[in-house]
Amino acid sequence: MSPQIPALILAVVGRDLRLAVRHGADTLGAVLFFVLAGALFPLALGPSPDLLRRMAPGIVWVCALLAALLPLDRLFGSELEDGSLDQLMLTGLPPALVALAKMAAHWLTTGLPLLFAAGPLAIMLGLPVPVLPVLLAGLLLGTLVLSLIGGMAASVVLGARRGGVLLPLLVLPLATPALIFGAAALDAAQTGLPWQPDLELLGAFLAAALPLCPLAAGAGLRAAVE
Amino acid sequence: MNATHSLVARTGAVFHRYANPGRFLRLGARLQPWLTWPALALSIAGIVWGLFFSPADWQQGDSVRIMYVHVPAAWLASSGYAGLAVCSLLSLVWRHPLADLAAVEIGPVGAAITAVCLATGSLWGKPMWGTWWVWDARLTSVLVLFFLYLGHIALIRAFDEPQRGYRAAAILGLAGAVDLPIIKFSVQWWNTLHQPDSITLTGAPTMSTAMLWPLLVCTLGFTLGFAAIVVARLRAAVMESRIRAALSARRGRGRAAPDSAHDSDVPGGAVA
What we know:
The complex is a heterodimer.
Chain A: H1 4-22, H2 24-45, H3 49-69, H4 77-82, H5 84-89, H6 95-124, H7 132-156, H8 163-190, H9 196-225
Helix pairs in contact in A: 1-6, 2-3, 2-6, 3-6, 3-7, 3-8, 6-7, 6-9, 7-8, 7-9, 8-9
Chain B: H1 2-17, H2 21-53, H3 67-94, H4 97-129, H5 137-156, H6 162-176, H7 179-189, H8 209-256
Helix pairs in contact in B: 2-8, 3-4, 3-5, 3-6, 3-8, 4-5, 4-6, 4-8, 5-6, 5-7
């Protein structure tokens, strides 16, 4: 059993990646939303460079948070509808690892593209280029946290009447620490203060979420198929 | 492993004594007056004492009296969520039916008291800090607690099959418990507008006893009141589910009646 587990996880991740590539428009939707939502802020706030530079960390982080929410209700939803979730649970993989594999796939198809789009968006908002590595390091940790928390919430709302409406209500309060530390690191870097402590706190948050969220999501999946 | 298992089983047996709805209803009916009347008496006494007979603060003046509502509400907002988390654990580990119902009923009461805490804090902040709201760590973490309550309320009622809602909301309830230590330590980790704790378990309180006593009376009264409301709601929920079961049994009998009209020896009560 045990030597099969890594192979099974890779198979689940690979299956999700193939699905994402074949439905390319769905995958790109979240990234397009991220760029579009970010572009709305200069239109609404006015194009003043000082204001935008001041607000860029918050805008990028909030838009990334909202964009990562979009694909969540399909994360397990389509599998539940066509019955493949039952088959996934029968592969011999513990439910927590099924959830972890799906979370990894969510990060690869949503978090990673967001990282690529975040740089250009931040520069368009006037964020100084030397600060970009801090933004990307923070977003790397932050999108991982979002995939973990989002996957947990997505497993919990499986089968609910209005799961898609519930998801933001569940994910956003739990994700606030990531937003606070991530944007604070960027703010500190912009004003020349040490930004490492905030990223370290974000890393600690990720370290806590990494084992706990898949376990909770596994319990949610088991409840959904029983 | 074996020892853990038997420990779990034994603890479960203790909890399951009160999983029997009939036993809970009898206990609840006996408990209810002992919660309701002391809660009313202590809350009224504490508030009257705090509002009219306790000294005004030398710095804050009369606005310090908001404390007698704000601090008990804040204590109950956190401990109510702790109770919700305990119910979630009982629900996930032991599938305790009464813990599921308790989680359903604690949610709205906890959300209401959290709203009271936020509203009174805001009213207190305006004269003292000059603003209704600051994005200070303590205030933000309590706001997050409020949203966690709302999410729990929405989730536990979002399923057509109640059992699914109990499981899902229990997972969320446990995940949300990480906010409780953040609230507790927010005034120590981040040095912001909200003052640090005046009352601790280990050290001497940093407030005058003339203010401490009415505050303690209010806190006890509010806590009993919280328990009284939850127990009353829980009893109502148990009775409601019994009525629903009885009604559906009668409907089932009514539907079965035309078929079983000629063979009258079939007991109609057995129809589920």
